[in-house]
Amino acid sequence: MMLDLANLQNIRSFDTNVKMKVDRVDILINNAGVVSLKRQETSEGFEKLLGVNRLGHFLLTNLLLDWIERSSEGRIVVVSSGAHKWGEIHKEDPHLQKRYNVARAYGQSLS
Predict the structure, then answer these.
(1) What angle (nearest 5°) sits at the alpha carbon of residue 81, between those of residues 89 and 48?
(2) Are the C-beta atoms of residues 41 and 48 closer than 8 Å to each other?
(3) Catalytic residue at 100?
(4) Which of 25, 28, 35, 98 lies 20 to 30 angstroms, CA to CA, from 76?
(5) For residue 32, what pLDDT is reported?
(6) Rounded CA separation 83/12 (Å)
(7) CA-CA distance, 68 to 22, in Å (whole number)?
C-alpha cells in the first residue's frame, strides 16, 4: 500500500485501509528521512522535513497503535541518523520560513 507521509489525510486513509485488510500490525518501522536543499512545505503547510520526518511518523504511529497492541509481540522501530544530537526545535520559527537551511531543517526534524 502506498503512503505519503507529507500528507496527513493520506496517512489517515492509509490507516483506514490497513485496518480494513488486517486484524493486527506486528511491526511498524518508521524509516522516512526526507532531506531537501530547498525549503518545501507539506500539503498542510508544514516545513516538509518536519512534516515527514517527525509529524508524519507521529500521526501514523498514533493511528496504528491500537492495531500494534493487538499483536502479542507488536513492535515499533524508529530509525534515525545522528542529526538528533545537534538538532533543536526552532520555537520562534518552526517552519523555518525566515532562515531555512538544510542542516537546521534536518536536525530539527529529528530532535
Answers:
(1) 50
(2) yes
(3) no
(4) 35
(5) 73
(6) 28
(7) 11
Q: Is the dihedral of CA 60, 61, 63, 67 positive or negative?
A: positive
Burial grade of 78 (CB within 10 A; 0-12, 13-18, 19 or more): exposed
* CA distance to 41, 44, 61, 93, per residue, from 29 (Å): 24, 24, 9, 29
Q: How many CB atoms within 10 Å of residue 8?
A: 18
Q: State how far the Cα of 54 lies from the Cα of 87, in Å rounded to an integer.
A: 13
Residue 70 and residue 99: Cα distance in Å, rounded?
Answer: 44
Phi and psi for 21 in degrees, rounded to 5? -105, -25
Question: Residue 82 is placed in which grid cell?
Answer: 545522528
Tens-level pLDDT at each residue, the chain (111 residues): 899 999 999 999 999 999 999 999 999 999 978 999 999 999 999 999 999 999 999 999 999 999 999 999 999 999 988 887 888 999 999 999 999 999 999 999 998
Task: Pick the catalytic residue from 25, 28, 106, 110.
Answer: 106
